[in-house]
Design goal:
1% of the residues lie in helices and 32% in strands. The chain is an all-beta fold.
């Protein structure tokens, strides 16, 4: 059964800034976004066509006008208010999204499903030509990590489980479909109403790939492909296997924990056109902190998977941390890099290591530490890529007991912090220098499990209201000292080159440029540019708003611009940063130029 179109074609809840349209000079219509253009995105450095810049998730700008010598003259070019993002949030914003740019038109969403079409071709202002309102309920928890383009449409998957397609010229809705939160032949039947999307879609081969993101709400993660023209679902792959499916034997409990097993896909994947596979990271098992509830390796959580875009079958996988319990899920970007004839996938893992894998089959190559301190394991096995303490004969891994919290034990401290090192934050790769960059948070945390989660019985389900609930923890927890980090890794050998430490969290990732710079933003409102070798700061600007979104660069004519969305959560981790406790978050697009 195909999902019902919730909005008749051509009917738009669209506000045209063109009630003054007669006096507005519209930019020329951009060419359709095609498979060829997306595969060759590097040849269009003036545009930003997909959330991670290209299919390989390089997040790199080939523009050079803004460089080490000129960055000191960078100034605000214009600001575009995004007031709709503030509605119903009480100041708790989650704008983690990058805008897209195509030949002078910029597209950005507000996390409530509203999409702005903005003419930035003048270089000195942003004219909002239309605003398409998906009319999402304000009872939802708004969050966005971006949008996608294909043909002449912009696509957005929403936290309420819908996916919408909007005409890029008019802002009219092409289709509006309920994809998640509906029964499906492959679903487990539990917690379906808790599903939703937070990651940006990925447009490949006429398909719009969307990842079910709310694993933390005791749902089962999945990746689906929708026909770009109609929205019809073409296939769906579930990240937690059912009994009898490959990997199902790694869920060793007696209460069908797989049905609420997590493995959400909440950050956009990469695409390898040669293999025709989408390469996606998966979230942690649920309940995340209570491994005793779900003994076994818990495939395919905490993994990178390669999914055939034609039929939705899994070609290979690599699991970073079997039976994990620190919330070190591995949704972060997976960077595709070709080195001396070897096709690799590289990843800043949340568990503190930087991994290099063979992209043809997922075989482990090597890894290097990038965070300051790792205490949950003594290291990574050079042959298997698994933690050295991993024992395949155990249903419940021990790892390092002094840092592994189990039920009824005293609080234990582990490093890195459960909110670091790098989660959704966009990473980057400079193809000219062979250096990969990441921005995130570092530190340690202390936790005790308490009673742990309570099963509802042999048919599956978690008692969400008693014990540890869906996350498995009813004991103590504290983040400990936190700070932000920016890291540069040698993609040729996976080793750390340099790092920069900052007093506030980095929730925005890294944008390397051909001008010898790395741009990022911080939770205290600062946008900064760094030398791409030493990572020492060369320029900064305080926006006055907490920042969570990634930076992009684009050009109009011969002029280069730097753009970022402001709208982070105020004082993201509470009392750790009292100096910004009274900062008022805003929601706007801010654009810089020389």
């Amino acid at each position: 059964m195909q999902p019902k179109n919730l909005r008749p074609a051509g009917v738009a809840a669209t506000i045209l800034a063109g009630t003054l349209a007669a006096s507005v000079s519209l930019p020329a219509m951009a060419a359709d976004v095609t498979q060829q253009r997306l595969e060759n995105a590097d040849s269009e450095p003036q545009n930003w066509l997909t959330v991670f810049q290209n299919y390989s998730s390089h997040g790199f700008s080939g523009l050079t006008q803004i460089n080490r010598d000129t960055v000191g003259d960078l100034r605000v070019a214009f600001i575009v208010p995004m007031t709709t993002a503030m509605l119903g949030t009480n100041g708790s914003l989650n704008l983690e999204n990058r805008p897209l740019v195509d030949d002078g038109m910029l597209y950005v969403d507000d996390a409530w499903g509203g999409i702005y079409g903005v003419d930035v071709s003048s270089g000195f202002k942003g004219d909002v030509l239309w605003f398409a309102d998906s009319e999402m309920s304000k009872d939802e928890n708004p969050r966005s990590r971006g949008i996608a383009m294909w043909g002449n449409a912009v696509y957005k998957d929403l936290v309420d489980g819908r996916v919408v397609a909007v005409d890029r010229d008019s802002g009219e809705f092409k289709w509006d479909l309920q994809i998640a939160r509906v029964e499906h032949p492959g679903s487990s039947g539990l917690n379906i109403p808790n599903e939703g999307f937070t990651s940006a879609p990925l447009a490949v081969e006429g398909r719009i790939l969307v990842g079910q993101s709310w694993g933390d709400r005791a749902t089962r993660g999945w990746l689906a492909a929708l026909d770009a023209e109609t929205g019809d679902e073409m296939w769906r792959w579930y990240a937690v296997p059912a009994p009898g499916e490959a990997g199902g034997e790694t869920w060793l409990d007696d209460h069908n924990a797989w049905k609420t097993g997590g493995a959400g896909l909440w950050t956009t994947g990469s695409y390898d056109p040669a293999q025709r596979v989408a390469i996606w990271g998966t979230g942690q098992p649920v309940p995340m902190y209570d491994p005793e509830f779900r003994p076994g390796d818990n495939l395919y959580t905490n993994s990178v998977v390669a999914i055939d875009v034609d039929d939705g079958t899994m070609k290979w996988y690599f699991q970073y941390t079997p039976n994990e319990s620190w919330d070190y899920d591995e949704n972060g970007a997976h960077i595709l890099i070709d080195i001396d004839g070897k096709n690799t996938v590289q990843h800043f893992a949340r568990n503190g290591y930087y991994y290099r894998l063979d992209r043809t089959d997922g075989t482990y190559l090597d890894s290097g530490q990038y965070v300051d301190l790792i205490t949950w394991t003594a290291g990574i096995d050079a042959k298997t890529g698994l933690p050295v303490e991993y024992d395949p004969s155990l249903a419940l891994q021990t790892y390092i007991p002094a840092t592994r919290s189990l039920r009824g034990e005293e609080p234990k401290t582990a490093c890195p912090t459960l909110i670091g090192g790098i989660r959704w934050q966009p990473t980057g790769y400079n193809r000219n220098t062979g250096i990969a960059y990441g921005g995130g948070s570092d530190g340690c945390f202390t936790m005790s499990i308490g009673q742990g989660s309570i099963s509802l019985g042999p048919d599956g389900g978690i008692n969400a209201d008693e014990g540890g609930g869906n996350n498995g923890r009813d004991g103590e927890s504290s983040y400990g000292p936190l700070y932000g980090g920016l890291w540069a890794m040698d993609a040729m050998n996976g080793q750390l080159i340099s790092k920069f430490r900052y007093s506030h969290e980095n929730l925005s990732g890294a944008l390397p440029t051909a001008g010898g710079l790395v741009f990022t933003a911080w939770n205290d409102g600062m946008v900064t540019a760094h030398d791409d070798r030493s990572l020492q700061p060369l320029w900064r600007f305080n926006t006055g708003s907490p920042m969570k979104a990634g930076v992009i660069s684009y050009a109009v004519g011969s002029k280069q611009f730097i753009a970022v969305v402001a709208g982070g959560r105020k004082n993201y981790h509470g009392s750790n940063f009292p100096d910004i406790a009274n900062m008022n978050p805003g929601s706007f697009l801010i654009v810089f130029s020389l």
